[in-house]
Design a protein that fits this description.
The complex is a heterodimer of chains A (147) and B (303). Chain A is mostly helical. Chain A has a two-stranded antiparallel ribbon with strand order 1-2. Chain A has helices spanning 7-31, 46-50, 62-76, 79-83, 87-115, 120-146, and strands spanning 56-57, 60-61. Classes of the chains: A mainly alpha (147), B alpha+beta (303). At the A-B interface, α2, α5 and α6 of A face α2 of B.
Chain lengths: 147, 303
């Protein structure tokens, strides 16, 4: 395997955690935004964010898009996927995390600048996405050198 | 005879036939430099992401600070609003008839929560007349209990009606009282984003009483109810007295019973207090028997 031993289990764990939170956010979106355990102040307000216009993209809940993304990245970050010989697996992982990070930047902009509130659970997913982005981008050169 | 494997361990100073020549030091340096540059790519990407997020956080924080600053509220100004002296409100008394109040018919079911009668405020940070109405409501409610976490803000900017009117928001604030329960909901933020979801009681009261036949409105806000006694939709005094005034200026003028601000907001607060006193059975006595409230009770339409 061309990457450090800690990379596959750590990225798998981060992707699984992101999937779990995305499931929670998706259920709350469809059931009741107030399901989210979240303090409600001027600055922190999960329901403000998850029920805003920006919580939908082309009519699809962002929470659901996040869940699909996290599930896909989880598969791409499994140890077997890190060991996979086909170059396209590593390309797909890199594209997924870079694309995910770009989308997260848009979501942070929507939260902070447009809605003016922070959703703590969304922020957890954003931090995990950044972690995956940092690890995958940092290891990309080694991966492609050997793939 | 060299030890087995020693040839590998000790590279020959001159390349043997078929071996690649040793790289010159300049070539090694060049490869190292390229390697350094390729390591720089991920670091730059990660750094760029961090920088963009940091920039957005900075804009968010300074923007939040600006909101209070834009309202023109200095430190302690909100505390002044919640502790307008009774003597000032007594001096104001009632400077006009009660405006925009609808008595509810006898037999209207009691509105109770946590074992206490409910004062309902149904509004939005995006609603300019809610900004206007929160001034007397806050003054009146502060005579029956205590607010925590009230923050200054303004109504939405132009082209909204009454742009940037200073006010407080009930979002994020708590109210405790031995006499009444404040059921408040701010449905949208200043920018119009969803903020708080009305609970079952709030939704039911809005649907039942904020109708043409009762308030003359169909869901307009601010919508208020004083238990099962009075209700109305809209603000209750001339918002023109707030024109071009900062939060601090309004609070200062509110403390002076001779100003238009005190006459408008103080009168409305006295009427609100009189209505709430009917709900609490004239408790607390020192509030409900104060001259300003008594004069409001006299002028007030009976429930």
């Amino acid at each position: 395997m061309p990457v450090a031993r800690w990379v596959p289990p750590v990225t798998t764990a981060m992707a699984l955690a992101a999937t779990a939170v995305a499931i929670y956010l998706t259920i709350a979106h469809y059931a009741d935004p107030d399901l989210l355990v979240c303090s409600d102040t001027n600055t922190v307000s999960c329901s403000s964010v998850t029920s805003s216009d920006q919580s939908l993209l082309f009519g699809i809940p962002v929470a659901l898009l996040g869940l699909i993304w996290a599930a896909g990245v989880t598969i791409l970050c499994l140890p077997v996927a890190w060991r996979a010989a086909p170059r396209w697996v590593h390309q797909a992982r890199l594209i997924a995390v870079v694309g995910g990070m770009a989308f997260v930047l848009w979501l942070i902009y929507a939260e902070l600048i447009i809605v003016g509130a922070i959703c703590i659970w969304c922020t957890v997913v954003h931090v995990l996405t950044f972690g995956l982005f940092a690890v995958v981008v940092n290891t990309a050169r080694d991966v492609f050198a050997d793939a | 005879m060299p030890a087995k494997g020693s040839a590998k361990a000790s590279p020959s100073p001159t390349p043997k036939k078929g071996q690649a020549p040793r790289p010159k030091s300049s070539q090694v340096k060049g490869r190292s430099s390229r390697s350094h540059r390729s390591n720089l790519g991920p670091a730059l990407m990660i750094g760029a992401v961090v920088a963009v997020v940091a920039l957005m956080v900075f804009v968010f924080i300074t923007g939040t600070e600006d909101e209070a600053a834009q309202a023109g509220a200095s430190e302690g100004a909100v505390d002044k609003l919640t502790s307008i002296p009774a003597a000032t409100l007594d001096a104001v008394g009632v400077a006009g008839d009660p405006s925009n109040v609808n008595p509810l018919p006898a037999g209207t079911p009691p509105v109770v929560e946590d074992g206490k009668p409910v004062v309902l405020y149904f509004g939005s940070e995006a609603c300019p007349f809610c900004a206007v109405q929160r001034w007397p409501v806050t003054v009146a409610l502060s005579r029956f209990g205590t607010f925590e976490g009230l923050e200054a803000t303004t109504s939405p900017p132009s082209p909204s009606t009454l742009p940037n009117t200073p006010t407080v928001t009930y979002h994020g604030a708590t109210y405790s009282s031995d006499y009444i329960t404040l059921s408040s909901v701010e449905t949208a933020s200043r920018s119009g984003a969803a903020l708080e979801t009305p609970d079952d009681l709030q939704s039911r009261l809005l649907a039942t009483y904020n109708v043409e036949s009762v308030t003359g409105s169909n869901g307009g806000i601010p919508f208020m109810m004083v238990g099962n006694l009075y209700t109305w939709a809209g603000s209750q005094y001339d918002p023109g007295v707030l024109d071009d005034k900062s939060f601090d200026e309004i609070v200062d003028e509110l403390a002076d019973p001779t100003t238009d601000v005190a006459l408008e907001i103080g009168t409305t607060a006295n009427y609100l207090t009189a209505m709430i006193c009917q709900l609490t059975g004239n408790e607390p006595a020192d509030v409900c028997t104060s001259p300003g409230v008594v004069s409001a009770q006299v002028a007030f339409p009976p429930a």
